[in-house]
Amino acid sequence: MADDSTKTAPKKLFIKTYGCQMNVYDSERMAEALSAEGYVTTENADEADMVLLNTCHIREKAAEKVYSDLGRLRPLKEARPGLKIGVAGCVAQAEGEEILNRMPLVDLVVGPQSYHRLPDMARAAAEGRKTVDTDFPAEDKFDHLPAREKPARGPSAFLTVQEGCDKFCAFCVVPYTRGVEVSRPAERILSEARGLVDRGVRELTLLGQNVNAYHGHPGGLGGLVRDLAAIEGLARIRYTTSHPNDMDDGLIAAHGDEPKLMPYLHLPVQSGSDRILKAMNRKHTAEAYLRLVERIRAARPDILLTSDFIVGFPGETEADFQATMDLVRSVGFGAAFSFKYSARPGTPAAERAAVPGAEADDRLQRLQALLTEQQRATQQAMVGREVSVLIEKPGRMAGQMVGKSDYLHAVHVTHPKAKPGVIGRVRISASGPNSLAGIWLDS
Ligand code: 5AD
Ligand code: SF4
Questions:
Q1: Which residue among 57, 267, 339 has the greatest number of ligand 1 atoms within 8 angstroms of its CB, and so is best to mutate?
Q2: What is the pLDDT of residue 8?
Q3: 81 band by pLDDT with thresholds 50, 70 and 90
Q4: Among 72, 227, 247, 265, which residue's CB has the most CB atoms within a 10 Å radius?
Q5: How far are the Cα atoms of 154, 307, 402 from residue 422, in angstroms, in the given order?
Q6: Can you tell me whether residue 28 is helix, strand or coil?
Q7: CATH number belonging to domain 386-440
Q8: CATH fold of 11-133
Q9: How far apart are the first and last CA of the chain?
């Protein structure tokens, strides 16, 4: 930029990221977009010239939390009136203009599809003009965001390949906040991936709200995975989050014969009751999910499966809940997230009568106990096994390093060769509550 701002001291940008991995990726891209305006990121909100809250709206109270976080920024803004405050992400999309009405200290509100307009909005803010952009523009924001120039921060990176969702599960705000499904062209993804690998990235996690609905490659997500696997230096590929109905044969086959595709799959099922699945508009049965799991395991027997569950969906009876517990017992998950249903305004389920809170709490506890037991058993079964570990960063103890196994378990090791970005063979020696310990064998 020829603009004077880049010649003076850099402006500092603080981004707080809520919610999913896609927001983590978006925050990185927003920082890159604003670096063209002379902003460098800081970890300290107190010294920032701009604070951006990259928000999430998936579950209840998200908007209220954002408003209370904004309230907490008030003293900062009073102390330094030049401070610019922005709200991005799904709460920005859902609330729009309302944020400016309720929080006059906010300078800009930008929805997830408009991040490429941030530099203009930052300039407007500098001139004292407030802006709101929550359009779903026809252009692809990624075409308008600057190419990724910054050095990658670690050996593992996120890469968004598609956004939005057409599934309209009855409880979910994503189709409203992120819009309909849009896939990025494979060529763009491949060139971004090559750039990341040149900067030391060894593992890519492909992101999308409904990532396996990806259709920017004639071979779908499986085809994209195979093309990415051909990139020299890229060692590992993962993807998240998937819908069971979009697990096609090509993708399942890739799990069987593409060694760079890691043996890990997050496959939300939400419920084990056909009645509830129907009410949720999930468009598959529990049996179909179980059969799908069989096919995936036939391709890759050691795959670690994780899932998402909602308990207390409107109309859920104890028998429905037991069907969920049965499904969990038959699959055996390596880990899972479980949530108490929360009504999201504007979604079809929000109109329906809720399950009493105490009952839903009780179900959540029972489900979480079972899932924790399965997680422990899965981790325990790793003890004695050899896995590959991609070292990411120092651990908490002196000399110790931590990385991720093929199965996405955090693994602690101590060895001179265990440096960030190195992939080594490790024998798992112990399992703790949330991570494993291992002995370095080679690299
Ligand atoms: N209530 C509770 N959980 C929800 N999720 C999405 N919407 C809701 C809601 N209204 C959960 C689903 C989804 C995960 C990302 O969040 O399990 O898979
Ligand atoms: Fe939401 Fe996922 Fe359902 Fe799409 S498939 S509506 S993102 S829960």
A1: 339
A2: 64
A3: confident
A4: 265
A5: 11, 29, 11
A6: helix
A7: 2.40.50.140
A8: Rossmann fold (3.40.50)
A9: 43
The CATH 2.40.50.140 portion of the chain extends over 386-440
Task: Name, in order, each residue with C-beta under 8 angstroms of 366's C-beta and a sequence gap of 6 or more.
Answer: 321, 325
CATH code for 141-382?
A: 3.80.30.20
For 113, which DSSP code? G
Domain with CATH 3.40.50.12160 in the chain: 11-133
* Spatial separation of the C-alpha atoms in residues 40 and 61, rounded to whole Å: 31
User: What residue spans in the chain does CATH classification 3.80.30.20 cover?
Assistant: 141-382
Predicted confidence (pLDDT) per residue in 1-14, tens digit:
444 444 567 899 99
Dihedral angle of Cα 21, 103, 97, 13, to the nearest 10 degrees: -40
20 is in an annotated binding site: yes
> What average pLDDT does the segment 418-442 reach?
95
Q: What are the C-alpha distances in Å from 132 to residues 12, 25, 114, 120, 158?
A: 22, 22, 10, 11, 27
Determine the Cα–Cα distance for residues 105 and 296; give it in Å rounded to an integer. 51
In tens, the pLDDT along 91-137 reads: 998 889 999 999 999 999 999 888 888 999 999 999 999 999 988 76
CA–centroid distance, 293 to ligand 2, in Å, is 19
Ligand number, closest to the Cα atom of 336:
1
pLDDT given for residue 4 in this prediction:
44
